[in-house]
Amino acid sequence: MNSYYTTNDSRIKEIDLKHTKTLLALFMLLCIPVSFLVSEDTFIWDEEAVNYYEAGNQNFTFTGGTKMNLFDYFPHLNETAEDRYETLGWYGSIGWEMFLSSSLAMGVEIGYSSNPIVDGNRLLHVPILYTVSWYPMPDKRFDVPLSLKTGFAYQNYNDWKDQSYFGPMAAFSAETMWRAFDSWSFSIETQYWLHPEIYFGDNRDSTALGNFLSVALKASFTNR
Predict the structure, then answer these.
(1) What confidence tens digit (pLDDT) does each residue in 88-123 have?
(2) What are the residue boundaries of the structural domains of the chain, listed by start?
(3) C-alpha pair distances (Å), 85 with each of 25, 80, 81, 121, 212
């Protein structure tokens, strides 16, 4: 099986700090409004600060947005490919989670993403992930949930059967959430994705770590 993170490309070069700076700038930009909201006491649900969630509540989530490749790293070659993809792809997911307390929830998420490659091909991902989410301000209308996601993903390069791969993946996300109604919340989710593709033996040099960033709109329905 051949890796779609091919190393036979003249575009491979050393890691550039440009992508790191872009990621940090985007994350800081999304967090600026939250820094003001956290300090406001007027955004609690009532004068006694009632928690929005309690143990047993469930969230159903619907997410859609853009996804971009930051770089692909080949650990056995110590090389990096940065510009093999078009600027933006797209990403969508649905998820479910159950609250263990007013601020901690666990659940599952299934998604689908497509990233076009500069040679006209495309890279598809279908992740199936277990999620753990922390809601640090459950008594306020605005929150900054943090989530850790781990699981597996089916990956396919341009629909070629010999370029398919099923393996582990992980993601970390931060949101700026607005609890607009009693049952509906809306947020902007910034998420870092790690897509490993691991090989052994004669193909070990094809082992690659795909690094992606997504920014998406998210709607959550709370069932009590």
Answers:
(1) 889 999 999 999 999 999 999 999 998 887 666 788
(2) 12-33+56-223
(3) 21, 13, 10, 9, 11
Residue position matching structure tokens 């690659």: 208
**3-class SS of residue 36:** helix
Average confidence score pLDDT of the chain: 79
Whole-prediction pTM = 0.73
Digit-coded pLDDT (tens) for 76-86: 877 787 777 77
CA angle, residues 78, 168, 176, in degrees to nearest 5: 95
Element (H, E) at 222: strand 208-223
CATH number of 12-33+56-223: 2.40.160.20
Tell me how far apart the alpha carbons of residues 151 and 117 are, in angstroms, rounded to a whole number: 25
